[in-house]
Design brief:
The chain has nine helices and 18 strands. The protein is of the alpha/beta class. The protein folds into two domains: about 280 residues, Rossmann fold, CATH 3.40.50; about 100 residues, no CATH class. It has a nine-stranded mixed β-sheet with strand order 15-4-5-3-2-16-17-1-18, sandwiched between helices. It has a four-stranded antiparallel β-sheet with strand order 7-8-13-12, with no helix packed on it. The longest helix has 17 residues. The radius of gyration is 27 Å and the shape is elongated. The relative contact order is 0.17. The N terminus is likely disordered. It binds S-adenosylmethionine.
């Protein structure tokens, strides 16, 4: 199958007006090759304020010998010690990311313990402390291989900030269908919300018009009038005998009495119906076998034939992150693209929910050391690896991308 790559002459850095803008094409992804600082500078010429979600997985500064440089230590900076060099590398890139983000945009950054506090300081300074959303902890391995000291560290973080208060975390789909264990003509539902008001302003005296009798039968049906023989009456009185109030006034309860359910003892609940579009708040601790690094490594072996990249992220982790943090039409940016997992995840989500997410990837064309397994597999610069995954997506699925 032929690859749908539009050819561009890269012999010279194109002027801003010549850089392809994915928003005007039907492509799923644009791959920009080069140092992300200069690429983002160029992108800011036409994309400022347009990116809805930015995910990055920068070098963690582990000092390991990876395919990319992962050692940026400074000596004895009076304030930041050895972390200064990494912070100075990240600072202008994060500033540009902020420029590219829409006002309600969100940035999520993967990191581990070593630079996490310094990243937080940078993000506090650039995005503002009040725009901190969360520091998600993900379990990346079951064993904590290669850990220093006596603790087998098996987690890392995704630090999330917004550009402004107008940002909204979309939430995850509620997949707990099993808990909706009851069914009626309106659908699956569960019983988990008391119809008697609790807590503040729950007394009869607070809302006298919400204190009225309800009637229920042995089937759990609830009525606002005593319409058939044999109904039992119940008032919103708690176990201490205190007169409280219902959640709704009588008119609404009459119109929507089919949403009410009574236990045999007359405890009235509002049915909680399953709703496919309903979203639940993501939690800050993410533990799932789908998020393990070994899973990402297997995906890399499947796509590339061998482990050509040491630090990929699992595609499912990115799917859940994107799905929970931004809309199905989001423009997504990853300027430390690596193997291109972010574009793959956004594409998978589009297939699942018919979305129109588009991803901008940036990856450097740094030379690969001849001793590296990727070199043995024919890759010469790192962005070749990103491009190979995109080509694989073109071949296996109907993925479309542009390269600049
Ligand atoms: C930790 S990896 C990202 C892995 C990616 N999340 C994945 O799932 O494959 C970091 C990537 O950032 C790239 N990178 C580092 N410095 C860069 C720069 N200045 N400009 C562009 N890319 C850079 C590295 O080459 C590497 O591929």
């Amino acid at each position: 199958m032929s690859l749908k790559i539009k050819q561009i002459d890269y012999s010279e850095t194109p002027a801003v007006s010549e850089i392809p803008d994915i928003r005007n094409t039907d492509d799923d992804c644009a791959l920009y090759v080069g140092d992300n600082l200069s690429v983002m500078n160029q992108l800011s010429g036409f994309l400022s304020g347009s990116v809805n979600f930015c995910y990055i997985d920068p070098p963690y500064n582990t000092g390991s010998k990876f395919i990319y440089n992962d050692r940026r230590y400074s000596t004895n900076d009076p304030v930041w010690g050895s972390h200064f060099a990494w912070m100075e590398f990240m600072r202008p890139r994060l500033e540009l990311a902020k420029t590219l983000l829409a006002d309600d945009g969100i940035i999520a950054v993967s990191i581990d313990d070593y630079e996490q506090p310094y990243l937080r300081i940078l993000l506090d300074q650039i995005f503002g402390e009040t725009n901190f959303i969360s520091c998600i902890t993900t379990c990346r391995s079951n064993n904590g291989k290669g850990a220093r000291g006596n603790i087998a560290t098996n987690h890392e973080y995704i630090v999330v900030y917004s550009k402004s208060k107008s940002a909204k975390v979309r939430g995850l789909p509620d997949l707990d269908l099993e808990s909706y264990n009851k069914f009626d003509e309106h659908g699956e539902y569960r019983i988990d919300g008391l119809f008697r008001k609790k807590g503040d302003a729950s007394l009869r005296t607070d809302r006298p018009n919400m204190f009225y009798p309800l009637y229920f039968d042995d089937l759990g049906r609830v009525f606002t009038e005593n319409v058939i023989p044999g109904l039992k009456e119940v008032y919103p009185v708690d176990s201490q005998g205190i007169e409280r109030r219902w959640l709704w006034g009588k008119d609404k309860a009459t119109a929507e009495s089919w949403k009410l359910y009574s236990s045999p003892k007359g405890v009235v609940y509002v049915k909680n119906y399953f709703d496919r579009s309903k979203r639940i708040k993501p939690k800050s601790l993410w533990v799932d076998n789908r998020y393990l690094t070994e899973r990402a490594t297997n995906q890399i072996k499947e796509i590339f034939g061998s482990k050509v990249f040491e630090t990929p992220k699992p595609v499912e982790l990115l799917e859940d992150l994107i799905d929970s943090h931004t809309s199905e039409n989001a423009l997504i940016l990853d300027f430390f693209a690596g193997t291109g997992t972010t574009a793959h995840a956004a594409f998978n989500l589009n297939k699942k929910d018919n979305g129109n997410r588009k991803t901008i990837l940036v990856e450097q064309d740094a030379a690969i050391d001849p001793s590296h397994v990727a070199y043995e597999n024919g890759f010469r610069v790192i962005s070749d690896i990103t491009q190979r995954r995109l080509d694989w997506l073109v071949k296996v699925h109907k993925f479309k991308y542009i390269r600049a």
